[in-house]
Amino acid sequence: MSSRPPVPRPSTPGPSGSRVASGGFRCSGCGAEAVKWTGRCPRCQAWGTVEAQVPPARAAHRVSSRNLTARPAAVVTAPARPMSDVDVTTARSRPTGVTELDRVLGGGFVPGAVVLLAGEPGVGKSTLLLEVAARSATSGARALVVTGEESAAQVRLRAGRTGAVHPELWIAAETDLEALLTHVDEVRPKLLVVDSIQTITTAAAEGAAGGVTQVREVTAALIRAAKALDMATVIVGHVTKDGTVAGPRLLEHLVDVVLHFEGERHSSLRLVRASKNRFGPSDEVGCFEMGDGGIRGVADPSGLFLSRWHDGGPMDGVAGTCVTVAVEGRRPLVAEVQALVASSAAAVPRRAVSGLDSARVAMILAVVERRGRIQLGKSDVYAATVGGVRLAEPAADLAIALATISSVEDRPIPGDLIAIGEVGLAGEVRSVGAVRRRLTAAFRLGFRRALVPPDAGPAPEHMTTIEVCDLGQAIRHMYGPGE
């Protein structure tokens, strides 16, 4: 007889839909409370998330030190012990076999951890996780992929095309939670992939598949199973049109790790970001390249975000382009910013942004016009990044400003120059972190001059740094010495 632990099952549904005594109502998305039911939450503006709350049972006696011992003893899962006596061996991360994903996770999957991977349709979530499951099976850890969006034959065809077929990689096509847990009980995998959480339903909750109640109940059951069996679990989640994870906000609080898979449909570059990670850094990024043979990690993305670069180094620039170095987690990314300024025939000039924060670009344009004395009020301005990368940190401000000025003057910035620094409303150039790391990455690609904030620290040997205090100084040095 096997002594393995049983798979936790969801509980049966209880009475709901009516207000009980003074329980009130609460939004399952943001937690806002109300005295009466409304179809739309007044705080987060979500529909169908306000539910009746059962009031807690009133205690028969006041809890005091005298009657604590008189209460019936509850069953504890494990006795309390000193923190120093806790064994952490079973909680150490295990590599997934995909280096870039291990970088984001902080070393790999932790047994019993639940990971939520969200991304737009067609970005490659299923392909990535199929590769991860195949690597897990190859290393000797059995993996189970449960798909609710495709048939088992469709997944098998993709696995054959990408080479992700292994005897220890199991596949099941199910949309019922009870059936999913039955597969887990029979296969006993070390890694479970559920694609996707919005397609799985349970009879223990009301509502249609993908609804708030269904997603919450299914996720809670999967978390209980993962913790009880020490089974790493990856849940695929959909996103809304604004890029946030679909479903209740509680979903992100329940899981251990939240990953976002980003990428443009017309670009082969894919980025994995961690917005929450209980076992590692939450600001790391992994780079992948999508191809006909599947998805592969890109350990060194140098040159992917530059339009005029070859193996020998940077090429001569064109008007309206400037190179900067962003830092994602601990990884420096050399990226190119492009700006195009053209006369406008409309009453209100257009501002179009791609890969940059539109509000920050608008602020930089105002600083360029006021502090740099560049007229932009009657011109359309277009700003974008190269290669599909998204730059959100302020260190790219100076490059955006110089690219705009270069486009206005129709004069290219030298190809070996980079610009790093945050630009304030007074036109000052503020310091940013990890300047030495940024300069080292740029020097390795052939850049030899850099405009940096004051007190930037030492630069790599044979690289010239020019400290600029404000935008005016940066403009005087952007075209070279003596310009």
UniProtKB/TrEMBL annotation:
Residues binding ATP, per UniProt: G119, E120, P121, G122, V123, G124, K125, S126
Region (Lon-protease-like): 380-483
UniProt GO cellular component terms: cytosol
Superkingdom of the source species: Bacteria
Residue interval(s) of motif RadA KNRFG motif: 276-280
Any GO BP annotation: proteolysis
PROSITE patterns cross-referenced by the UniProt entry: RECA_2 (PS50162)
Keyword Transport among UniProt keywords: no
Comp. bias intervals (Pro residues): 1-13
Pfam family, one: Zn_ribbon_LapB
Domain RecA family profile: 90-239
Region (Disordered): 1-22
InterPro entries reported for this sequence: AAA+_ATPase, DNA_repair_RadA, Lon_proteolytic, P-loop_NTPase, RecA_ATP-bd, Ribosomal_Su5_D2-typ_SF, Ribsml_uS5_D2-typ_fold_subgr, Rubredoxin_2
NCBIfam families: sms (TIGR00416)
Entry similarity comment: Belongs to the RecA family. RadA subfamily.
Domain-level remarks: The middle region has homology to RecA with ATPase motifs including the RadA KNRFG motif, while the C-terminus is homologous to Lon protease.
Protein name (Swiss-Prot/TrEMBL): DNA repair protein RadA
Lineage of source species: Bacteria, Bacillati, Actinomycetota, Actinomycetes, Frankiales
